[in-house]
Amino acid sequence: MAEIVYSGESYDSVYEAVCATAVELVDGCDHASLMLRRGGRIETVAASDDVARRIDELEKELGQGPCLDAIDEDEPDQHICPDLTEGSNWPELASRIKGETNVEGMAGFRLRQDGKRVGALNVFSDDAGSLTEHSLDQAIMLTAFASVTLAALERGEEATTLRRGLESNREIGKAVGLLMAMHDIDDDRAFEMLAKVSQEMNVKVAEVAAQVVAHHRRKEN
To answer: 19-25 contacts: CB < 8 A, separation 24 or more?
Structure first.
């Protein structure tokens, strides 16, 4: 997961890595999914397989379950039911899961970002009781790392956007300087020239500026 983040991969790659890592590293976890709150809606952004995705669909359809509770701000961070055969806080969901899948245990762990509750890592077991205290500790650690990972990815995206903005401004500054020198005008007039061409060509000012700078370099060479 760290390698994916450091290599600048997409959000989807990180989401998928979180689910794959849960199945690989959390004892007793046979399926995993990741839910995130987006624009007031809860979406499954990744799942290890169709079983995990189906259980997420059932939770959203019924409006109940450990994963939804983990996202709910009025509920605790973790919601665990290691054995669906012994009863559950979500009886209708448990009945549907047992009727449609082989899953017998499940848990939801809250994802936080900047102090906000943004989603949940969901783990499911095909064997009742396989989600032990140790495996739940593993899931909590993975959830914490996933939260940091997503925050780091978002910071990286912000940094990339900022860097692109600075690069654009630098090109605009160069173009303004060249136009001032070429036409003996002030900076306001030079920028107005760039803006006018931008409107006429229907391209961004930064692109016009880059063309001005590139043209000047070709003339110099």
So the answer is: 19/46, 19/47, 19/48, 19/52, 20/48, 21/142, 22/48, 22/121, 22/123, 22/139, 22/142, 23/48, 25/138, 25/142
Q: How far apart are CA 59 and CA 67, in angstroms?
A: 8
Start-to-end C-alpha separation, the chain: 47
CA–CA gap between residue 11 and residue 5 (Å, rounded): 9
109 closest CA partner among 66, 149, 73 = 66
For the chain, 221 residues long, give each residue's pLDDT as a single digit of tens. Answer: 666 555 556 778 888 888 998 999 999 999 999 998 887 789 999 999 999 999 999 999 999 998 888 888 677 778 889 999 887 889 999 999 999 999 999 999 988 776 667 889 999 999 999 999 999 889 988 888 888 777 777 776 655 655 666 567 778 888 888 888 888 888 778 888 888 888 888 888 888 888 888 888 887 76
Q: Say what the pTM is.
A: 0.67
